Amino acid sequence: MRVISGKYKGRKLQGFDIDGTRPTMDRVKESLFGMIQNNIPDSVCLDLFAGSGALGIEALSMGAKECYFIDNNPVAIKTLKENTSSINGAIIINTDYKKYLKETKNKFDIIFLDPPYQNKLLNKALKFIEEFDLLNDSGIVICEYVTEKPITTLTLIKDKKYGTKYIKVYQK
């Protein structure tokens, strides 16, 4: 696993083997970031269910101002700390996603939602994001999923399928 573009291009990332995670393949990540590249410069991002942090780190590499990495798996937190050492703008928070979404005062330009597929957390997270108005005007949410189709009032602006995996980009 590595950073595919930007100022940290080529940087190796740890965490491909964190229990309960499946890293986004490079070709999917490359296509995803191609879809949202104009939204990234100076953005504030949220990498919910961060795992290794690959998505948020890629955004920081491409010019995001800061990224909040949320996870409550101790192995993921340790890996996030290793992967973001010497990366400016990385904020790691060890907490449950619901607690963070309910309590944060932040608003985001980009939210990455790539929860563990088996736990059916995608729509629960989307509901909290909308209920607590966590997106800035024109903010986007990127959903990566296999079976749990997103249910949201946000506007679908991009949609791609990679094998059994879907990526949908929604805008406020």
pLDDT averaged residue by residue? 92
Report the oligomer: single chain
Tell me the major beta sheet. Answer: 7 strands, mixed
Strand line-up in the sheet with most strands: 3-2-1-4-5-7-6
Number of strands: 7
Uncertain segments? none
Report the end-to-end length measured between terminal Cα atoms: 31 Å
Quickly count the helices.
5
Sketch the topology as an H/E string, one letter per element.
HEHEHEHEHEEE
Number of domains: 1
Radius of gyration, in angstroms, nearest whole number: 14 Å
Shape type: globular
Q: From the 3D structure, determine the CATH topology.
A: Rossmann fold
Structural class: alpha/beta
Question: Could you state the CATH homologous superfamily?
Answer: Vaccinia Virus protein VP39
Return the CATH class: Alpha Beta
The CATH architecture assignment turns out to be 3-Layer(aba) Sandwich
Helix content: 25-40%
Write the layout of secondary structure elements.
Blueprint: H1 26-36, E1 44-48, H2 54-61, E2 66-71, H3 74-84, E3 90-94, H4 97-103, E4 108-113, H5 122-131, E5 135-145, E6 155-162, E7 165-171
Quick overview:
The chain is of the alpha/beta class and 172 residues long. It has helices spanning 26-36, 54-61, 74-84, 97-103, 122-131, and strands at residues 44-48, 66-71, 90-94, 108-113, 135-145, 155-162, 165-171.
